[in-house]
Amino acid sequence: MAKENQTTLPEFLLLGFSDLRALQCPLFWVVLLVYLVTLLGNSLIILLTQASPALHSPMYFFLRHLSVVELLYTTDIVPRTLADLTSPQPRAISFQGCAAQMYVFIVLGISECCLLTAMAYDRYAAICRPLHYSSLMSRRACVAMVGTSWLMGIVTATTHSTLIFTLPFPSHPIIPHFLCDILPVLRLASAGKHRSEISVMTATVVFIMVPFSLIVTSYACILSAILAMASTQRRHKVFSTCSSHLLVVSLFFGTASITYIRPHAGSSVTTDRVLSLFYTVLTPMLNPIIYTLRNKEVTGALQHMVKRQVPSP
Q1: Number of H helices, E strands in the chain
Q2: For the segment 78-121, what is each residue's pLDDT rounded down to a tens digit?
Q3: 190 exposed, middle or buried (CB, 10 Å; 0-12, 13-18, 19+)?
Q4: CB 242 within 8 A of CB 40
Q5: Taking a C-beta distance cutoff of 8 angstroms, is the pair 186, 197 a contact?
Q6: CA–CA distance, 7 with 152 (Å, rounded to integer)
């Protein structure tokens, strides 16, 4: 019997927002509304970039895959969160369910990191090396970049999930969070944390700081090229093609850096949950809005599609 108990996989208790009962109902409706807008917005981006010939350039190829990532990302987290918000008591999640949620979460998070870096390189190639753009950003090169983004996500998720979920956990582990995020789950492990914490920090440096550094380098070259342009109007036009991507990069890497790089001593449960809500629920909704409202090509394609669907009087 003792041996059987040792091999029994524990259930994790997700506290979610059970300590904020007065906010659970309004939070449910807010999260549901944001989720529906996210589904609509990202689905619209996927449809537009697929159907409109004007949006068949490499930048929109990457944007389409980014929207796919955002759809899957929120769907991995939000439905479970909505279900938990309807319960006055914390709800359990199985060991396998927690591992699966974290695995998908890491795959999509790392893939988004890499896709944003590829999009920055696309802008660099278009502005700084226009004569070589067609060869640098060929169809094969774009497919290879997207494939590499997914591969890096899968490799990282497999490594992290294996390291974390082979650690021993208490018999009744409680996660003070609404999802099985890396750090809250890792802190529950009763042994071997040092090895896994080193792994997490290494991945943080590699997949947050290195891509961010590459993006900063790309935009430093872009800024230099823009400042060298004689025409103010041309400067503004060229910079406007980068502004949407810059804003999305700031949202993604800003929240990721605060969440995973800041010291644990300076964090709190409430702060962790607010930050996680921001990058798992709010940011995926904002991305299609940013690319739609701040991009004339996307708004033009949307208007053209609406005109085709609505017959003129």
Answers
A1: 13, 3
A2: 999 998 888 888 888 999 999 999 999 999 999 999 999 999 99
A3: exposed
A4: no
A5: yes
A6: 32
Segments in 187-231 forming alpha helices (H) = 193-204, 210-227
Which tokens in the block code for residue 143? 């497919």
* 3-state helix, strand and coil shares in percent for the chain, rounded to the nearest 5: 80, 5, 20
CA distance 275 to 256: 9
What are the structure tokens assigned to 291, written together?
């690319």
Nearest of 307, 311, 310, 305 to residue 52 by alpha carbon? 305
∠ CA 79-85-88, nearest 5°, is 145
Q: In what order do the strands lie in the sheet with 12-14?
A: 91-93, 12-14, 174-175
Say which DSSP state 89 is in.
S
User: Do the beta carbons of residue 167 and residue 193 sit within 8 Å?
Assistant: yes
Cα four-point dihedral sign 218, 220, 223, 225: negative
d(CA 152, CA 199): 15
The tokens for 272 are 């962790």
**Structure tokens of 120?**
């920055």
Model confidence pLDDT, tens digit, residues 170-215: 888 888 888 888 888 888 876 555 666 666 667 666 777 888 899 9
3-class SS at 157?
Answer: helix
